[in-house]
């Protein structure tokens, strides 16, 4: 969507493209499906963070779909899915105990770069944009609150990733147990 219509970036509040609209609709459907899957498979307790994230995404995306405003912001936020590729590769490498530490090592650094480029940078830019230019009432206030909560979640996930892949000695609490429990970023 952004590749074919780069002019969208000049109007985050009111920019519109059919492909962007369809992307947000499809993504909303994915979040709804994944939420129902977590609930129906009795994974709510272990996946409560995902449920919170999905509820925030669904509510924000539905408001965007209904009003037609801030569609470009949603498309920018969906850039995080690019970094999910490398997080998934990381998880699969850990689960499969691949005997090639070089492959995991390479993915570790690529994953970190992608996390910065496709999670932290777009999130920071949108947070700055919303705090500076968006009127904090109505939909603007709702979306700004959502962004700030997402900021906290993304930074929490980032700290887990850093502790797991770059500072493993910081993973253990004072009682010798894993600070983050059974989170996939730590496992």
Strand content: under 5%
Count of runs of 4 or more consecutive helical residues: 6
- Write the element-wise H/E pattern from the N-terminal end onward: HHHHHH
Q: What is the number of domains?
A: 1
Rg from Cα: 18 Å
**First-residue to last-residue Cα separation:** 35 Å
Structural class: mainly alpha
The biggest sheet, with number of strands, parallel, antiparallel or mixed sense and barrel status, is:
none
Question: Count the strands?
Answer: 0
Unreliable stretches: 174-187
In percent, how helical is the residue content?
Answer: 55-70%
Mean pLDDT across all amino acids: 88
Shape, principal axes of CA atoms: globular
Main location: membrane
Pfam family, one: TRAM_LAG1_CLN8
Protein name: TLCD1 protein
Transmembrane segments: 72-93, 113-131, 143-162
What this model shows, in words?
The structure is a single chain. By secondary structure, this protein is an all-alpha fold. It contains six helices and no strands. Helix 1 runs antiparallel to helix 2, helix 1 (18-40) packs across helix 3 (71-77) and helix 4 (80-96) runs antiparallel to helix 5 (101-133). The model is unreliable at 174-187 (pLDDT under 50). The chain crosses the membrane at residues 72-93, 113-131, 143-162. It is found in: Membrane. It is a multi-pass membrane protein. Keywords: Membrane, Transmembrane, Transmembrane helix.
């Amino acid at each position: 969507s952004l590749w074919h219509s780069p002019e969208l970036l000049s109007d985050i509040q009111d920019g519109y493209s059919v492909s962007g609209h369809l992307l947000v609709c499809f993504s909303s459907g994915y979040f709804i499906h994944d939420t129902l899957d977590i609930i129906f498979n009795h994974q709510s307790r272990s996946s409560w963070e995902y449920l919170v994230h999905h509820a925030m995404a669904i509510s924000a995306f539905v408001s965007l779909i209904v009003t037609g405003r801030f569609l470009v912001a949603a498309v920018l936020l969906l850039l995080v899915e690019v970094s999910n590729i490398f997080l998934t590769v990381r998880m699969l490498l850990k689960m499969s105990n691949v005997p090639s530490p070089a492959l995991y090592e390479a993915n570790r650094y690529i994953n970190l770069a992608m996390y910065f480029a496709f999670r932290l940078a777009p999130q920071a830019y949108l947070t700055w944009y919303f705090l500076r230019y968006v009127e904090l009432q109505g939909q603007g206030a709702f979306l700004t609150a959502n962004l700030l909560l997402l900021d906290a979640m993304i930074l929490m996930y980032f700290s887990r990733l850093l502790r797991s892949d770059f500072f493993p000695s910081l993973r253990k609490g004072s009682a010798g147990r894993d600070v983050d429990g059974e989170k996939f970023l730590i496992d």
